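Final report, results section. Input specification for complex C-07:
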Amino acid sequence: MATRLKPVDVVTIGVGLTGSLAALELVETGLKVVGLERGAGRDTVPDFQSPAIHDELRFSIRKANMQDNAKVAVTFRNNANQTALPIRRWESFLPGQGLGGAFVHWNGQSFRAQVADFIYKTHIEQRYGKKFLDACGPELTIQDWDVTYDELEPHYDRFECLLGVSGKAGNIKGQIRPGGNPFEAPRSREYPNPPMKEPYFGAIFRKGAESLGYHPYPQPSANLSRPYTNPLGLQLQACVFCGFCERYACEHYAKASPQTTILPVLLKNPNYELRTNCEVLRINLDNTRTKATGVTYVDAAGQEYEQPAELVLITAFPLNNVRTLLLSGIGKPYDPTTGEGVVGRNYTYQTTGGPTVFMDESININPFMASGANGTMIDDFGGDNFDHANLGFIGGQYVGAIMTNGRPIEFHPTPPGIPKWGLEWKRAVARHYNHTILIQQHGTSVASRLNYLDLDPTYKDAWGQPLLRMTFDFPDNDIRMSQYIADKVVEIGRAMGGKIIERGGTKRPYTTTVYQSTHNAGGAIMGTDPTTSVINRYLQCWDVPNVFSLGASAFPQNITYNYSVTIGALTYWALDSIKNKYLKSPGPLVHA
Amino acid sequence: METLKSLMANKTWCRFFAAVAAVLAPLGLLTLVQAQSQARQPDAKHGAVIAAQGTPAGAPPCAQCHAFNGASDSSGAFPRIAGQSALYLAGQLRDFAAGVRMSAIMSPIAKALSPDNVADVAAYYAGVEAPFLPLKAPDAALVKRGEALAKVGDAAKRIQACDNCHGPGGAGEPPAIPYLAGQYSQYIVFTLQMWQRDFRTNSPDAMAVIAKKLDAQDMAAVAAYYQQVRSPLAAAEAQRKD
Amino acid sequence: MIKTISAAVLTAGLPLESAKTDEHAAIAATTPSIGAAAPPTTYLFFNPEEAAFIEAAVARLIPADDQWPGALEAAVPNYMDKQLAGAWGAGQRLYRSGPWQQGTPSQGYQLPFTPAELFHTALAAINKELAQASTPFAKMSADQQDAYLRSLEAGGKNLGGVPSDEFFAALWAFTVEGFFSDPVYGGNRDMVGWRMIGFPGAYASYYDLVDQHGIKIDRPPMSLAEDAHGHMHADPGIPAYLPPPKQ
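Structure output:
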């Protein structure tokens, strides 16, 4: 029997990036906010200190900072003709857990989206004609977002300043600036901090890319290039390139995370209450099914509670956001056979995979000296930055030498043709470990009516609730896109002086057994039309106006770039509408 | 020493490593130098001469303040430099000469040293062993607090553990980050104060930020702790010798 | 215990010749434990038959040569033994509910076995099969052992419910972990795996070096347990929050 608690104004389901950002905005208006986090509390001192944090087996291989598959997993199949089976151990994507969520162990790669990304369907149709999109794939279901880059720009700026993003602007108010990305969307001003130091692999890539006429620029980084005090008065330190960034927490206060940029202020606010080790089972609705009354959750001791609230924010990471909506009965679940319904629709991922460039023995790359976002890259093949007219696909990838580590269990490259084990393998590892450059291709994931999320009919979590079921394979469009770019990137590898180049490019079928990206997106997308979206342009649920779903689940399709900064901007945008519109007059903010 | 003999018998080694090997051998495992044969190798023997006699250009002997074995004296006014990373020592001398780091004593000395002198003297001191001089017993409570800062940090002040960068037990992370283990407490406090007040500026992205968060008690605590720490690697080595 | 010095002669900025053979010989000569026989292991998990197979198998998967020791000398069997005897072997972080069915390669591991069960089951089947043959695995020649491992790798054999290719993949991944993980976990003895590739280990702070392109970093690696006291986690007696100074 659930214990009913005293009502509060706001509950956030999850206390990661979106949960902590949203809570801070609202407690400052005087609202009482409760943050429910599935995982444990943790902080830089003492939990993230080295040497204990620099444990590759524990954090990279055994995934200590991730959700515990023993308690809750996801089931997966490539298509609806298969039976979905549990992902019994994470590999392809790594949902985080614990206070701060995945924003503790991310790599700090901090991009904005492109102007065209927010009006993607309109843009493609205008540039290439309506037939072009059909030819790329009749199953594609790309959509516009119903928010524009210009509307988000001030929120991008604000979020970048919160983090202290370190980079070089390429476009300030339409003026192209040398040293930055000439293709980037126009910024109102320079980055808050200068770019990171360029490691050797970046310098070699830069030379190679320039020689072919491309436009290399430093990757924007939320692992800071110098000490910085953010607008909340929190000081971050400079990154030391320790090579333990993704999957690890930062010991130096140098990586932007909730712990370093928000929580010290949020946790001191008397209007905020953090409850850790609390598993939210569902959002409760009233009899009309159009108003949330609060949430039901189970604490670490197995006690069930009902927490009434006026406003519920789903801030749990895209996959968990969608699952929460489905378990709560909010919105019509998507049915791929009829094409009707919206929750789970337009699930997308990220199309990744670049070449490995094996260099001469005299070139010491020292991959262990690296940060999470110290790449040198080009955007010449990103998004719609190049003419697709005769190419037969939409979308693109950024390309760069973006090495983040030399951790040996994960990184021990050998050229093609070398046996997979044995003496020759061992000698090849010794020969190539310190003389190899990885080039990343990282890009768009178009939405398809065949790729979606729903609830699994068979497998359950430790609380007895159905697991989320993922049906996904790379659309042919994205395969063609990445293979086209892979050919171009091989040329860059040659220009870099690579002795052996193992070509990149994505292949089907998508497998959950190899790490690619944790940029799962979609499933609870925003849009203009409630028959093709779950939330409106303010991230408010069409069906239940006092529930907002914050995060990349809102993306109608996935963009070229790592999406954390876009999520931050979108969160500020949504909170702005909550503070200035919703709270003054609760109810639907958009009438469709 | 046994190790040196086996190395010196290997002709290939002699080709690459002669003079430096002779000085570095007593410490066992060598770090290895790879260089084109025409680039000048640092000459630790010549570095020893400079340490003892100074240079004709007017640099005084290093040994006057730092002792010939790099242990300095127990006043703590001059840092212990025995076994300090050569790259680090050379970098400090360059910074003194260039005015990036300023000291009324070291700046003119560093300016009088040529780049070759700097490399030689750094190689020499990097290769010496020196005993730890007997010092007054530290305050136990202060040492305990210093150990906490060294190994864990301080959540309230948002300071990370010193050992993150300065290595296990403050043994250093060569070649760039110096050891603190066994360094004189007065010198550690003095240096932290120099960073705190922006007088020392050659690690502004790290040490100035941290030093400004430390109060006098914190500085005394880490200094007391590190002065009495013996590098665990050296401790194990000493055990092995017995 | 490996001796170390903190000296490093400045070589940054100079084009570097390779002297790998000399370097390896020098390290081998000056590091007493490298090249020595496999260390004795107290097995908690493997029975003697299983241990014999594992020791012989890892010696083929990552063999020793005149340059560097292999997985056996690096105590990889010990690493595996302690992992399988502990939480991970028992199925930590593994979604363990059924029903079970064979999936596509994209769907990953779908067997009901924990790692401990997987190894016990597969090794029992292997040892049973080889007991019926003329030579147990450990007594085969190196070539025969390689051939047998390749036959496991190729799949097609059912090892008591474990497809042989799945067992081989698990064994290989485990061997790589044991060779390259921090020595506190019982493998990578004397950090030979790290020395072989030049990975400096768990203490990692490179702000001043990352832009010295091409610099040779050859300090000895440092493990999580470099503290001579052997403690990896913060001593609970040391508070995270320092008490305010007494006035």
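Chain C has a mean pLDDT of 83. The beta strands of chain C are 158-159, 162-163. This concludes the modelling results for the funded period.
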